[in-house]
C-alpha cells in the first residue's frame, strides 16, 4: 500500500509591509522565500534545504510559544531585557540577530524608548507591527535573509548593540568565524554584543521509571466482561541491552546535529570563537538546570470513592524526621481518571500529573531509599540550578553579570517547566529525526536490529508508523515524568480538573500503576534521573578598535 503524500509547500497569506521606515537605498529588499513553508507530517518547516539553512526545528505554534515562555524566563532572571548594565545610557540602535517572533525586540523597545531596532531572521514569523502601539512599531523593522549565504544587509558600524539568543543550532561549526566577523562589522566602536545559547539535551528516563508503564495489566484481575483495548495499552518492545527505552530516538536526535555540522554543545565551543573578535569578554559559569524531582502521586480527589476500590494503597516510604513508614491513605475521596476509550498514557497521567497531600520530599526520599542512603529528608527545596565550575570568563565581574539571587529565588517546581522545554526541543526536530532514520534504513538498516527493529519494519509505510509510535511513546512517558499539573498547582495555585469516573478494568490498571510506581521509587536511585535537562551559556563583549 503506497504511503500517502504528507509533504507539500505552503505560502503564507500575503502580509503587508509592517516596517514604518523604508530600508536604505543600498539595502537589498527581502525576497518572498521567507513566506514559503514545507508542511510535513504536521510540522511547519522552512523551505530552504539543509545545505542552505541547517536549522532543524519546526515553526509550529507550540514551538513558537515555547520561545515566548523562555523569553519571559530570561526577563525574570535579569529583571531587564539585557544582562548588560548600561548605567543609564542604553543603546540607540540595536540588532536582534535570529529574532524569531520578535518578542525580545518589542520588550526592548518598551524599555529603551530612544532606541530603534532591527529584527533579522530567516523566515517571516514576527509579530505584525500593526498590532503594536505606534510609539513602538515606528522604531522597529523586520528584515529577512540568510546570513549563511550572504552578508548581513547593514552598514558598517550601524549598531551599538547586538542581541543574539538561540542561534547556535542555525550555524554550522565552520560558519561561526564568518558570522562573528559580520557582527563585528555592523557593530560600532565601543558597541556591545550579548549572546545567550543552550546545549541540545535529550532528556531520558531510567528503566526503573518506565518499567511500571511497560508492565501489562494482569489478566487474572479482570473479569470475562472486562476489557481494555490492546491498541490503547500496547508499547513497543525494547531490548534490555539498551540503556533506556528511548535509546534509538536519542541516537537520531544526536544525529540531527552531527549530520548538519551543528555543535550540540555550543556552551563549550562558542567562547573561543567569541573572544577572537570581541574584547572585555565576560561569561559567568555555565548554568545547568537539573532534572526536576519526581512529583508526588496523585492519590485522590474529594468525593465518594468508587465501588470496589480499596481505601489504602501499599505502604511507601514517607520522609519524616524519624523515617517512619506509613501507607498512602485515600481517605474518603474519589478516584479520578479518564474514560474507557483513553490510552494507557492518559490514564496513567492521572497517577502522576497533579498534586497530592504527599510532600515532594516524600517521593525523593522514597527514591533515595533504594540507593542505600536511607531516608534523607531535606529542610530546603532542591537547587533550581547548578553552576558549572571552571567555565567562567572574566573574574568576579562575570559572576556578577548573572543575577544568582534571582535564580536562587526560583523553587524546584520551575524545573518541571525547564524539562518541558527540553522535551519540546526534541519534538520540534522530529522531522529532522525522521530524515536521519530514513537515511539509516537505506545505508545501514541492519544496525537498527539492535534497537528491536525487524526487516519488516524497513519499508516506508511501516517505518514511518513505527517512528510515530516511538515518538508518541516518548511524549507520553515524558508527560508522566513532567507532571505539569503538579507544577502549575504549586506555582500558580491552579487546581487540576476533575476527571470522568474510571471503568472497572481501568480502576485495576490505575491501582497497579500506583503500586508499581511507588515500588519503583523505593528501589530506584535519584541519580539515575541523569544530568541536567538544560544548560545555558551567557557571553557579553565589546567591539574594541
TrEMBL record:
A GO MF term: methyltransferase activity
Ranges of compositional bias, category Polar residues: 1-21
Pfam families tied to this protein: Methyltransf_25 (PF13649)
Residues annotated as domain Methyltransferase: 95-191
Disordered as annotated region, ranges: 1-35, 300-353
Annotated InterPro entries: Methyltransf_25 (IPR041698), SAM-dependent_MTases_sf (IPR029063)
Skewed-composition ranges (Basic and acidic residues): 25-35
Comp. bias (Low complexity): 317-333
Protein name: Methyltransferase domain-containing protein
Source organism per UniProt: Phanerochaete carnosa (strain HHB-10118-sp) (White-rot fungus)
